[in-house]
Amino acid sequence: MTRPTADSLSVLDRPNSYIGKTVPRPNLDRLLQGRGQYVSDLELPRMAHVVFLRSPHAHARIVAIDATAAKRLPGVISVVTGRELEAVITPWVGVLSHLKGLKSAPQRAIAVEQVCWQGEAVAAIVATSRAVAEDAMEHIAVDYEELEAVTDMRTALDPSTPVIHASLGDNLAFERAYHAGDVDRTFAESDAVIESEFVFGRHTGVTLEPRAVVADWNAAEARLTIYQGTQAPHMVQNIAALHLGLKESQVRVVCKDVGGSFGIKVHIYADEMATYALSKLLRRPIKFVADRVESFNTDIHARDHRCKGRIGVKQDGTITAFEIDDLTGIGPYSMYPRTSAIEANQVVNLVGGPYVAQNYRARARVVFQNKNVMCQYRAVGHPIACSVTEGLVDLAAARIGMDPVEIRRRNLIADDGYPCASPSGMKFEQLSHHASLAKLLQMMDYDALRAEQTALRLRGIHRGIGIASFIEVTNPSAAFYGVGGAKISSQDGVAVRLDAQGSVICQTSITEQGQGSESLTAQIVGSVLGVSMERVRVTLGDTDNTPYGGGTWASRGAGIGGEAALQAAKALRKNILDVAAAILQSTPAELDIAGNSIVSASDATPRIELNELARIVYFRPDTLPPGIQPELMATRHFVPRQYPFAFTNGVQASWLEIDTETGFIKLLKHWVVEDCGTIINPQLVDEQIRGGVVQGLGAALFEKCIYDERGQLTNANMADYLVPMSGEMPDIEVGHVVSPTQETELGAKGAGEAGTAGAAAAVANAVNDVLRPFGAIITEIPLTPQVILTALGRI
Amino acid sequence: MIAPIPVSLLVNGEPIEALVAPRLNLADFLRETLKLTGTHVGCEHGVCGACTVRVDGEIVRSCLLLAVQAQGSSVETIEGLSDSGEIADLQAAFRARNALQCGYCTPGMLITAQDLLRQSPTPDRAAIREHLSGNYCRCTGYQAIVDAVEATAKTRAEQAA
């Protein structure tokens, strides 16, 4: 029997490949036995704890701070104000040059003179324990002069509204206008133009482990080690060094287990910067762990948008144009370093994206307000763009009396219509909207479900079906941040080496917060090398011990870090085969690696085990032919260059029931079909989708940071801010269409945000499917019982 | 009343004598005094379930119990339940089904699930969802967890038959 030569096989079809297989993630037992190493668990010698005294006012001038009494308490090491910390750490401004006109004011680690949101730190208390520090906090007297708070985004730009940062001149952070085609003429020629305003609740990530950091300045080494639950260690290294006046080589960032991130832990927070600075100032390790109330008040919020949308449609179902006017309030500062204009920018980029219509006009305005900061959170902008687009499409379908599925069939970009671009200029390599929709309808048995819905309605049971197509930005190139001047790497690197016993050590710059980065790296490396996964050990989350790279965010780990792993493993494989050929007096082409052994390429006969090859290389190189210098380590990096983003697509459906007496929604079932290209581990992809969907369902039904008119967050705890729990969540069926990206050999695109992108839109459309016979329409989330009953005219 | 108070209790079967501040909650006692960091702290107000442990056989939120209230009790944490092998099959099912991502809720989730399976050997999915509804997981969307608990119940029932 002859086999194709090893080099003609891609990693996808090599014998014993792990690609496309469900295998358990390595090292899960550590987490299952409570033996993980989260930053919250970390203790170091001489470590002190910091708590932050936070402003009770949304907007105020700091007149005086008296910490005399607090400093006298036993166990208190220091009380530090913003003014004192300024000597150690410089302020920052969260802008990017490619977001033209974006402005923000200098933000400090601890407020100086002015506080701009309820929860902004005004003093740091460092003590031998958190409890002592909290006791001392009670003894600090701060004299505030309260200022008028800017809370309503709709009036933030009014001349009568106070300007939060006088130096900026007004409260407008960013504005973008865009026009493609001829929207006015197209609307005039349409059979109907439907308009609505879509309102989104401000919500937040609620990671189960709060933000946590231990900063350890070693004065003798002149080096700062930061242990932090972060998605982007090299970004943290760069920022900490920049603002502490250090070289990057003087900062090491270590990130072991992270108790949830979802974009919450990809930013630089003032209290974390303060913790780094305090460690340098006090020359000892300092630990900061946010408590839950602090998390609600200071973890970034997201999605606080009001978006007016218009859609034109012809009687035959042709969608002619989209128009949006989006307004969002981001709090008092643009976050650092990724900025708070990205979400609105994404909304402009993504609205109408799945559809053929090329007439599109958009305006987005981003305003400052005296609330907690907003920034990128899982699926940045997508849930808004998707809810507006899909809400408008359903409104259009209802107006012309067309089934929601039929209008999508008639307008989604044809599967053979690629490559192409959206009206906002987004480039699509290959999407599969129609194949995905067809698969979804089959999975949910759409026609039977419609029949069931009709039958139940006659019995007074009100159920609805909602459909939402979506596109998702993944594998971002430098177009996202690098071009704007941010030192956030869009490339990732992987180093692979064969150890002396034939096992493999792999260092990658992507990070792990539970998505399965470690697993996908081991699967790819094991497959390419022909080594079993148990022999592959993956190191991540350490700027001293991994190649330089971006980390894990924006659905980039598998597509970018995975390709780097593939290329590194290929290079190592070649190096191993070169040595093997020398040892075996053969040629590399005649050899392959399979099952941890060098084998004959022609018939897979084992020739020499990898551990024996390694033994010779490391301990008996004298027996190798002259001139042979084995290199059993290889490093490769990868960044997408051809497409700024690898867009993915998919479609979701929700099936739910509304109790029209109580306004309660019962989610009965949810379906998703998505296309993330090559699937490395089906189980991991499915669970990313499910988790993402539930995060979107929380936004759809429960989650909202409720501020009063004075800028006070009134529900900053888990009893009042509701999150999805197991009892309310449905089972979610996931299907796939596979359109690999041709830009990489691996072909993988991202999957981490697809679930969140479309879940709320599907639910909202299903709710309106229920309400339409009642003459009611809701374009607001969360869809609380109060919102439902108000729409039904019952309250 | 802030003077430390002596307590004696069993933790994972090991006798513990300690002087504790009256205000110290059991979660902090386990984590900070005994260094049993498998018990996680998520909300510190009794909602998220991350700090769930077993006290005298009943599951409790260790953030809502003072350490002094555990005087004379037998406390079991994820470390103890792992070492005894009591939940080895449940842990294996979680691993096989990828019923955890970041793993921060997992110790509390496992202890709560084991509590259900001790009370009700063959719960249906709705009963599993109901029993776990006080344990917050932001990562998984719960379905994989429900699957893993259901699979464990089934296996145990088959082995008992």
Could you walk me through the main structural features you see in this protein, from its secondary elements to its overall organization?
The complex is a heterodimer of chains A (about 800) and B (about 160). Chain A is of the alpha+beta class. Chain A has 3 domains: about 5-35 and about 490-640, 2-Layer Sandwich (Aldehyde Oxidoreductase, domain 4); about 40-145 and about 210-260 and about 265-300, Alpha-Beta Complex (Aldehyde Oxidoreductase, domain 3); about 300-480 and about 640-790, Aldehyde oxidase/xanthine dehydrogenase, molybdopterin binding domain (Aldehyde Oxidoreductase, domain 4), CATH 3.30.365.10. Helix content of chain A is about 25%, strand content about 25%. Chain A has 19 helices and 31 strands. Chain A has a 7-stranded mixed sheet with strand order 3-5-1-13-10-11-12, with helices on both faces. Chain A has a 6-stranded mixed sheet with strand order 7-17-16-15-8-31. The N and C termini of chain A lie far apart (about 75 Å). Chain B is of the alpha+beta class. Chain B has 2 domains: about 5-80, Roll (Ubiquitin-like (UB roll)); about 85-160, [2Fe-2S]-binding domain (DNA polymerase, domain 1), CATH 1.10.150. A 5-stranded mixed sheet of chain B has the order 2-1-5-3-4. In chain B, a hairpin with a 2-residue loop joins strand 1 (about 5-10) and strand 2 (about 15-20). In chain B, helix 3 crosses helix 6. The longest helix of chain B is centred in the C-terminal third of the chain and has 18 residues, at about 145-160. Chain B is globular, with a radius of gyration of 16 Å.
